[in-house]
Write a structure and sequence with these properties.
- Residues 2-136 form the MPN domain.
- InterPro entries: JAB_dom_prok, JAMM/MPN+_dom, MPN, VirAsm_ModProt.
- Keywords: Hydrolase, Metal-binding, Metalloprotease, Protease, Zinc.
- This is M67 family metallopeptidase.
- By secondary structure, this protein is α/β, with parallel strands linked by helices.
- The chain is built from three helices and eight strands.
- It has helices at 6-19, 59-71, 92-97, and strands at 2-4, 25-33, 36-45, 75-83, 104-109, 116-122, 128-129, 133-135.
- Strands 7-6-5-4-2-3-1-8 form an eight-stranded mixed β-sheet.
- It starts with a strand and ends with a strand.
Length: 136
């Protein structure tokens, strides 16, 4: 099972709302315990594209976030971004850019009044699975 720290989930929501109408982005970090994954911390990154349709992460911020993760003894669990005007599912571009089949891809949709957050696994053939998660 995948667990997400409630405060970290709220931070993703806050970031997406604050950066609306642009997509927001960041890293998911945490711990792997056998079959279980705990997302303990998010690392907010800047969308260099400032676009509502795609994002590019700042390489300097990415490097800094990975260093901070290592210092905190956390693992890279995945990344996340928002979809301001579309559903919480990987777009064609999201699938094309999914380079690592070992990580999770989080997508928060602000398309409707109630935000929708999902996690996805995308394999090398670009097949998509939606694992269940719990906010704790």
């Amino acid at each position: 099972m995948i667990y997400i720290d409630k405060l970290q989930y709220k931070k993703i929501l806050e970031q997406a709302r604050n950066e609306f109408p642009d997509e927001c982005c960041g890293y998911l970090a945490g711990l792997n315990h056998g079959e279980d994954i705990l997302i303990k911390k998010i690392y907010v990154l800047t969308n260099k594209d400032h676009s509502s349709k795609h994002f590019s992460m700042d390489p300097a911020e990415q490097f800094k976030a990975v260093k901070l993760m290592r210092t905190a003894k956390l693992s890279m669990i995945g990344n996340y971004h928002s979809h301001p005007y579309s559903p919480s599912r990987p777009s064609k571009e999201d699938k094309r850019l999914a380079f690592d089949d070992k990580i999770l891809y989080g997508i928060l949709s602000l398309e409707k009044e109630k935000p929708v957050f999902n996690l996805f696994k995308i394999d090398k053939d670009k097949n998509v699975k939606k694992p269940e998660y719990k906010i704790i």
